[in-house]
Prior knowledge:
Layout: E1 2-8, E2 31-36, E3 40-43, E4 51-58, E5 75-83, E6 86-93, H1 97-105, E7 138-142, E8 145-149, E9 157-159, E10 166-169, E11 183-185, E12 190-196, E13 203-208, E14 214-220, E15 232-233, E16 237-242, E17 245-247, H2 249-252, E18 259-261, E19 267-273, E20 280-284, E21 292-298, E22 301-309, H3 324-330, H4 332-335, E23 337-345, E24 351-355, E25 362-365, E26 377-383, E27 390-397, E28 403-407, E29 412-414, E30 419-421, E31 431-439, E32 444-451, E33 461-464, E34 475-479
The protein binds fe (ii) ion.
Fe (ii) ion binds at residues 137, 151, 180-181, 229, 291, 473-474.
Amino acid sequence: MQVHERGRLPNRLPADDDHPYRTGAWQPTFVEYDAFDLDVIEGAIPEALSGSYLRNTENPVMPSLGRYHPFDGDGMVHAVRFANGRADYRNRFVRTRGLAAELEAGTPQWAGIIESPAKSLRDGWGARGRMKDASSTDVIVHAGRAYTTFYQCGEVYELAPETLESRGTAAWAPARGVSAHTKLDPYRDELIYFGYGTEAPHLWWGIVDANGRRTLEESMELPGPRLPHDIAFTENHVVLNDLPLFWDPALLAQGVYRPRWRPDLPTRFAVVPRSGGAPRWFEAAPTYVLHWINAFEDGSTIVLDGYFQRDPLPKPDPALGPYAALHAMLDLSRLQAHPYRWRLDLATGRCTEEPLFDRVSEFPSIAYRAAGRRHRYAWSMTAKPGWFLFDGLVRMDLETGREQVFRYPDGVYPSEAPIAPRPGATAEDDGWLVTFVSDTRRDSSEVHIFDAARIDAGPIARLALPARICVGTHACWAPG
Ligand SMILES: [Fe+2]
């Protein structure tokens, strides 16, 4: 492996930092590397594996103004590119306007999501406002451009997918903001996006074509400000949502942004034609869904898979000390997130629902060509109880109900693992899962490649990275 340091930002965090989400597996990195011809520690890189795995990371540079939440951290994209049985790695900060302003000031300028926006020193971005748009949540590659986005809405930052060089913001993005979880339809080569805010209309969505041009944007009225995180789509429809966990309207009027769980209200789904038009609304049992697995059409029915949370706002455990509330909201075991299916019948207007698997998991992957189409398999991340840290992978066969599981030892944490299809593959699971792994025991990081059909056999290849990297949230696969 040939390693080149290409950049470095100053570490302004406290030397004795003890925040649970800025230390350990969440310890940020400050050096930007290019590393060529990664060393293979075990196994072999499949010759046919061709393309790039990109993952965004919350990687804070500045101390927080008040309370820190891991989703506040500055965006950093890590990417590994495979071709001809070899792999190269790069990582770069997302050069957001907020990061530039804080580097220029030398101090933090914005309070994060669990702190009062009144503590921010200047106006900012986001559905809530007066936040930094860290662009650290999600990453996707569309029409030859890599885009990073932020879950509280903001600008869409564009990076060169091969060099990760920042190229400013995407021209197609509306000024009112775009949320994380833009969706790629590989059949039409379209990107579907959404955004949300506190002012009516509270929700909007749109489509970007294969040339990177916005071709449609529509607004949708909701009963008030909501906190959607993700959307789904099928061949002909987009599925948006109005979930009964949102900022308390009375407190919101006083400038206090406190999420409330309202189990007295239904979950509501809006099905809208991709060409635009009025939504058809469906009601289901109350829950919060962070991520949808996929959606597809089955005759007149939209089949929607996602993770149902049995307890979307768990009570903090006081024994966990000053970070009790943070631990409660980030623990998938406490949220009891598990794979679930809703069926929205456009002919009858009825919604039926059922759990798919009992095992707690989240952060889905489906076959690249299954997006918006019928899928048989879904892969998910399992999580370490008590933490927002992944500890393994599960492959779920929705036809047979069978699961395959791979679990990492304590102290070793993988990241979201999208599927790289084998070129010419026809079977959904003919390909590989790729993930970054942070090993806090050895203070190192690796790239792991799994056979998508046999994840229980463990990684078929392990590659070394030049330094330990921080765990992060969303990732994508971009075919070569
Ligand atoms: Fe997400």
